[in-house]
UniProtKB/TrEMBL annotation:
Role this protein plays: Catalyzes the conversion of 7,8-dihydroneopterin to 6-hydroxymethyl-7,8-dihydropterin.
Similarity section: Belongs to the DHNA family. In the N-terminal section; belongs to the DHNA family.
InterPro entries per the UniProt record, alphabetical: Dihydroneopterin_aldolase, FolB_dom, GTP-CH-I_C/QueF, Hppk, Hppk_sf
Catalytic activity from the UniProt record: 7,8-dihydroneopterin = 6-hydroxymethyl-7,8-dihydropterin + glycolaldehyde; 6-hydroxymethyl-7,8-dihydropterin + ATP = (7,8-dihydropterin-6-yl)methyl diphosphate + AMP + H(+)
Name of the protein in its database record: Bifunctional folate synthesis protein
Cross-referenced PROSITE patterns: HPPK
Classification of source organism: Bacteria, Bacillati, Actinomycetota, Actinomycetes, Micrococcales
Source organism of the structure: Nesterenkonia aurantiaca
PANTHER family membership: 2-AMINO-4-HYDROXY-6-HYDROXYMETHYLDIHYDROPTERIDINE PYROPHOSPHOKINASE
One GO process term, biological-process aspect: tetrahydrofolate biosynthetic process
Region (Disordered): 128-154
Length: 325
C-alpha cells in the first residue's frame, strides 16, 4: 500500500458580495454594480485539526477582507483581471496556501440577452507567483521574509520594521507629524527615517470621504511584534481612533489615524490580531509609492517595492507633498 501524500484540504468562501466599479464601460465605473466572489483555497489542515488552534490555519477573516477590498477598490476593466489579481494576492498572504481558485460573478453584466450570471474562474498555485530572491539587494528592508515568529517573543536585538500611517479626518498632516513624534518617544522604538507625506484618494469604503494623508516609516525596535502593535494602537487611541463597528468605525471608512505594521524584520507572523508582512501592502499604492520615496531599493516578499508600486491600481492617485524629515 502506498503512503498517503500531503492532503489537499480546502477552505471555501462562497458568495462574498459587494459593490464594485469594474468594467470596460464608463457607466460601469461611474455607477458601479454588484459583484460576487467564491474562493476555494487548497492547503494542509492536519496541524489545525490536531491543535484546534487558529495560528495553525489560514484566517478566512483576512481572506474575506482582502476580497472585499479588491471588489470595492480601484477598478479593473475585466473580471478576468480581478480574478487573477485575487488568486495571486491571496496566495501571497500565506505560504501555507498551495493553490487558490477564484470565481468572480458579474450578475448585472451589460448584456442585451436574458441571463442569470456571467462569471470567470482563475486557478493559480504557488508556481504562478514570482520566485523570492529574483531581485538581489543589500538594502536593510529588502531581505526576504524568514520563518514564522512567535509574536509574543521579544527579539534578541533591535529589529527594523516598516510602518504605514494614514489619516483623513481633522488636520491630517499635523496628526501624522504628531504620531511620528509619539513613535520616536515610545519606549524601545526609534524612528530611523520617514517618507514625504502623500495625498491619496480613498480606496474602498463609503463614497464621499475626504482624501487621505499617508506616510511610511522605518523604525528600529526591541519590542515583540504584539508589543509593537500595542504601541501603535495606543498612539492611534491617543489621536481619537475608535476601533471596531461597535465603536462606530466603518470598515475602510474615514479615520483620524491608522498605523499598520507592514514588515517586522524578516519575520512571518500570522495571529488573530497581526499578519506580517501585511497581506494587502503589495497592492496598495498609498503604501508602496511613499515607501519608494523613503527607500528606492526596498523589497517586499522578494519583489522590489518600486515594481509593485508601478502595478498598483491606485498608484496614479498618489500625490507627493513636502518632505517632513
Amino acid at each position: 500500500m502506498s503512503s498517503r501524500s500531503s492532503p489537499r484540504d480546502t477552505i471555501r468562501l462562497t458568495g462574498l458580495t459587494a459593490t464594485g466599479h469594474h468594467g470596460v464601460f464608463d457607466f460601469e465605473k461611474r455607477e458601479g454594480q454588484i459583484f460576487r466572489v467564491d474562493a476555494e483555497l487548497t492547503l494542509d489542515l492536519r496541524a489545525a485539526g490536531r491543535s484546534d488552534a487558529l495560528p495553525d490555519t489560514v484566517s478566512y477573516v483576512e481572506i474575506a477582507e482582502l476580497i472585499h477590498a479588491a471588489i470595492t477598490g480601484e477598478p479593473f476593466d475585466l473580471i478576468e483581471a480581478l480574478a487573477d489579481h485575487l488568486a495571486r494576492e491571496i496566495l501571497a498572504t500565506d505560504q501555507r496556501l498551495l493553490a487558490a481558485e477564484i470565481t468572480v460573478h458579474k450578475p448585472q453584466a451589460p448584456l442585451a440577452q436574458t441571463f442569470e450570471d456571467v462569471s470567470v474562474t482563475a486557478r493559480r498555485d504557488r508556481s504562478d507567483l514570482p520566485a523570492a530572491g529574483d531581485h538581489a539587494t543589500d538594502s536593510v528592508s529588502a531581505a526576504e521574509p524568514g520563518p514564522s515568529l512567535d509574536p509574543e517573543a521579544a527579539p534578541a536585538g533591535e529589529v527594523t520594521a516598516v510602518l504605514a500611517l494614514g489619516s483623513n479626518l481633522g488636520e491630517s498632516a499635523v496628526t501624522l507629524a504628531s504620531a511620528v513624534a509619539a513613535l520616536d518617544r515610545a519606549e524601545a522604538v526609534r524612528v530611523l527615517r520617514a517618507s514625504p507625506l502623500a495625498r491619496t484618494s480613498p480606496v474602498g469604503g463609503p463614497a464621499g470621504q475626504p482624501d487621505f494623508h499617508n506616510q511610511v516609516l522605518e523604525v528600529s525596535t526591541t519590542l515583540s511584534p504584539h508589543a509593537l502593535l500595542a504601541c501603535t494602537q495606543a498612539i492611534e487611541q491617543d489621536h481619537h481612533r475608535a476601533r471596531g463597528v461597535e465603536n462606530g468605525e466603518v470598515r475602510w471608512g474615514p479615520r483620524t489615524l491608522d498605523i499598520d505594521i507592514i514588515t517586522y524584520g524578516r519575520a512571518r507572523i500570522s495571529s488573530i490580531t497581526l499578519q506580517v508582512p501585511h497581506p494587502r501592502a503589495g497592492i496598495r499604492g498609498f503604501v508602496l509609492v511613499p515607501w519608494t520615496w523613503m527607500d528606492p531599493r526596498a523589497q517586499l516578499d522578494g519583489t522590489p517595492v518600486a515594481e509593485l508600486a508601478r502595478q498598483a491600481a491606485d498608484a496614479k492617485s498618489v500625490e507627493r507633498l513636502e518632505s517632513v524629515r
